[in-house]
Amino acid sequence: MPSEHSLPQTRVAIVGVGQVGSAAAYALILGRVADELLLVDIKAELRDAQVRDLADVAYGNNSGIRVRAATIQEIGQCDIVVITAGSRYSRGETNVQHLYHKIAIVQGIVNEARPFRSDTILLIVANPVDLLTSLAQELSGLPASQVLGSGTFLDSVRIRGLLAERAGVATSSVDVQVVGVHGNSEVVAWSGVTIGGVPAARWFPDKTSHLAEVANQCKAKSQTIIRAKGGTPFGIGSVVCSICSSILFDRRDVCCISHYLSDYKCCFSLPVVLGREGVIKAIDMHLDQKEWEDLDESAQELKHMVERLKSDQGL
């Protein structure tokens, strides 16, 4: 087994093995997270090549992980199903057309994979992650606590690292979360930031200036990566590995991920305790009034969009 703490014959399926899916698989192998890794893609030649390439990683890492090709019909019996599959823009395609194309892809995957095993965790990585996670939650037939999205996890990791560099401390000493709807409307919970358990204001007397600079630096970093290479596959891959580890090893880590919020009837990111059953419990997070207002505004917009799409799709 990859680890004495792992469950017997744990299996993770990755649907879509392009840049993001292959990076996630690579991270899972190096992390020795599961016993078996199933790769699924409509491009059979690409899928099979990725299987052969990643199998070499497993051999070289002496992990004992089996990497194999699979069909969508097989993945419903896995411990975790990771959906990274999306689509590139077609020539002349509008943003709305592209969105509906992505929705159709995720809808098709979930419908073909059903019925899922009762304890399967479904993890959506494809963007727009909160919207797709909300729709997958409706489609899957799984409990809401078992349908998750990568959400703002990577954004939280990134801003934590940048703040740690500025303070000259280890990243693990910084507690800051990015919450809400992933993208331009997400909210950095500055009001609750601590470094080594000490409020950020004690580290940075001119707190407003420092934190604004970090926020701008974080946004610029993401934009430059995406502009140069089209995405952040290694960062997302590491996030997938972290989430899967928390689940399969039942680590009860506090993670900021997209999950179902009953008050809004849709999925977006707030901190939760993550374990083998998915979301074990939500964390009562401290936000100031402005942060709550910004989060609520974007969440309400997402809620209305989800309701409209559910009506269009007959869900």
UniProtKB/TrEMBL annotation:
InterPro entries: L-lactate/malate_DH, Lactate/malate_DH_C, Lactate/malate_DH_N, Lactate_DH/Glyco_Ohase_4_C, NAD(P)-bd_dom_sf
One Pfam family named in its UniProt record: Ldh_1_N
Lineage: superkingdom: Eukaryota
Annotated NAD(+) binding sites: G16, V17, G18, Q19, V20, G21, D41, V125, A126, N127
Domain spans labelled Lactate/malate dehydrogenase N-terminal: 10-149
Family in the record: Belongs to the LDH/MDH superfamily.
Single annotated GO MF: L-lactate dehydrogenase (NAD+) activity
Protein's GO biological process: lactate metabolic process
Protein name: Lactate/malate dehydrogenase
UniProt cross-references to Gene3D superfamilies, sorted A to Z: Lactate dehydrogenase/glycoside hydrolase, family 4, C-terminal, NAD(P)-binding Rossmann-like Domain
Record: active site: H182 (proton acceptor)
Domain Lactate/malate dehydrogenase C-terminal: 152-309
Organism: Aspergillus nomiae NRRL (strain ATCC 15546 / NRRL 13137 / CBS 260.88 / M93)
Residue ranges crossing the lipid bilayer per the database entry: none
